[in-house]
Amino acid sequence: MLKAVIFDMDGILIDSEPAWEVAKFEVMQRLCNIQITQADADATVGKRVEDIAHIWCRQFDLPLGKQREISDAMNSNVTDWIRRHGEPLPGVREALQWLQDNGLKVALASSSNMQVINAVVDTLQLRDYFISLNSANELQYGKPHPMVYLNTAEKLAVSPLACLAVEDSVNGVIAGKAAQMEVIAIPPQELRTDPRYSIADRRLDSLLALPALLHGRL
Questions:
Q1: Which CATH superfamily, name and number, covers 4-14+88-215?
Q2: Could you give the residue numbers annotated as active site?
Q3: Stated pTM of the model
Q4: What does the angle CA 71 – CA 181 – CA 159 come to, to the nearest 5 degrees?
Q5: What's the distance, CA 11 to chain centroid?
Q6: For a Cys-Cys bond, which of 133, 158, 170, 207 suits 4, CB 3.0-4.6 Å?
């Protein structure tokens, strides 16, 4: 029986992925004089910013001491964008309210750090819907490792088998499935036919469809 729904954040609650992409290109150019490719940016979607910085320090033969500077700059860029431009994606408030009204536990499990998470839930005024806010940045492993989902389920005192994960990235879907959770994928429009999302249990176009999908299962 379904007892909890655990949301990813970037690309699910807020369309911040474009801001992350701009930050990746801008920070690497400004701090390292390196022009990353679109493939470099795409390969890191859904990963922790610290892992992204680590990957690129190795890829571009940068001193590992540069890793913290890169990750801090990207977090700062995105946090500023969220506070100035952040808006919830379609269906976010409706889905969260429906889940709350129907007695399901609701939590967040994001690759972003707590600075960015707090900026999102406060700017969008969503904090009261969540029992628990969790960052993979504070754990040993980030997505696609399932640790952040397993850790979140433990905090909710709910078996992973009774949790539903809602994700937009392939790395996030892998993490949810590895945690033995049911996973709903809401891919970006340009990736909706990507076969890698076939491991998800369902695909939706937006959170507007979530209440109808779950109705009758409670």
A1: HAD superfamily/HAD-like (3.40.50.1000)
A2: 8, 10
A3: 0.88
A4: 105
A5: 7
A6: 158
